[in-house]
Queue: 2 jobs
Job 1
Amino acid sequence: MRVHVVSDVHGNTSGLARAGDGADALICLGDLVLFLDYADHSRGIFPDLFGVENADRIVELRTARRFDEARDLGSRLWSGVDRDAAIETAVRSQYAELFAAFPTPTYATYGNVDVPPLWHEYARPGTTVLDGERVEIGGRVFGFVGGGLRTPMRTPYEVSDEEYAAKIEALGDVDVLCTHIPPEVPELVYDTVARRFERGSRALLAAILRIRPKYALFGHVHQPLSRRVRVGRTECVNVGHFASTSRPWVMEW
């Protein structure tokens, strides 16, 4: 059995269309939407609406963790614009292309920048969307938990620690834990380029220690201090920033 795993696609439709080549199944751990490319500020929903100069400025503020100023800038830019309608139109356009690129079968869960209510409109036969749910693939049980925890960034699919923990608890025992965010392990949550700790889940770490799955797979942190850390008997693997690499992580058994 050969399974390819991707995360943080962020608009990389061409790479996604090839991600399942040679695999029996594809797993996607979310963040399909490209709102703003921190490496190329000309790409994404935000610069399309407000221009590259404003994108440069908001990246500068967020990188400096000046979130109040970033929100103030955003408020001024969005003034007079129907924010929800503009974002939904742009997200729908991206989802139409991205979901069409998924191979069959694909098993997917949401990232923190995704818009879950839209997924079932675009998921075609052969794409299974899972969140707080499990599925058997090639004789192994995979559990999926989507989204992220609440942060000052206020991305679309952030949930409370309690709700996130409840989704993990609902999985029961699994062979492979598939999430968008990592467990709360310093080496896995620190981004070496952004130079900050992202939010990981303590409930996920506790589940790894309790359930002892063979793998815990995730993304979210684009340039982690460590991509792979063993916690007990579990290999915790950041499957990579697919938007920049176009390379899936490969699991075989």
Job 2
Amino acid sequence: MGFNCGIVGLPNVGKSTLFNALTQTIAAQAANFPFCTIEPNTGRVAVPDERLDKLVEMVHPKNVVPSQLEFVDIAGLVKGASKGEGLGNQFLANIREVDAVIHVLRCFENDNITHVEGSVDPVRDAEIVETELMLADLESLEKRLDQTVKKARGGDKEAKTRLAVMEPVMSALKAGRPARSAAPAESDREACREYRMLQLLTAKPVLYVCNVDEESAASGNEFSRRVEEKAKTENAPAVIISAEIESEVAQLESADEKKEFLASLGLAETGLAKIIRAGYKLLGLETYFTAGPKEVRAWTFVKGSKAPQCAGIIHSDFERGFIRAETIAYDDFVKYGGEQGCKEAGKMRSEGKDYVVQDGDLLNFLFNV
């Protein structure tokens, strides 16, 4: 299990360049004209995790499987997309399928790269995309409103809940705010279920990515600072990267070369690492591990999941026939030199169905089907 992020933005902001760098492929054509990406390109990358590297060093398995992260490079959007302008219909359909949105914003000046709006203004660009998505959501809700009202008046319990969810969301959209600003409380499970079933574009969590020039990669610039201010008001994350630097890093073969190159630019890590960390936090994701001589593997789960649910990520039989989970905290595994050392130190625990799995746990599931 990983997560799926759609890379969106106006044409010519660096989406495809970033996609190519992140996936280390040339699947997306990076060109200096609008709509060079027509069909959504999809790429899977391994999630870098120093803990996984340490486990491999300790266990010496025959096989290593990291978590996977999926990126989808979606065609550039323009004004009028909600009405089908440009490649609007494709854009809206593609974005509906992803779990989260990586909104790439151009935060650099370059006379050789055309900007569809004629000038560089990342906050304006963000608002163009958001407005089109909000208009599409509002149209979708308005089409369903009359039928929902009729069912609710007729005593349909689900329709009443749906209407109670739709009304504040529609008010927010009309006021120029995304659907997520009017999401129901997590404690109201029925309302949350109806909210998810609406499949609204602006309900998806957003990560703003400020694409800056090489000179600004370490500390940002005035453009990126304006984006960070916007993100802060929305309680959304924002990261600074240089797609051009990511392209150069992707071409280097060894980890040492990459580290040395980044250090020369005043960077401690790649943009990929920044995006993954921010994305994990955005979606409330964590990692547990399984480790043995045959394989060391990282598994992604939703924070707060219980042991049977995490077992089901491996195989549905594990969840259906769950008995218990032999559990070792990652820090203990390292401190005591592996599984045997943890057993001897009393650091292996037997956890039942109500155990909430913690980030970094090493788990061995016992089940009976």
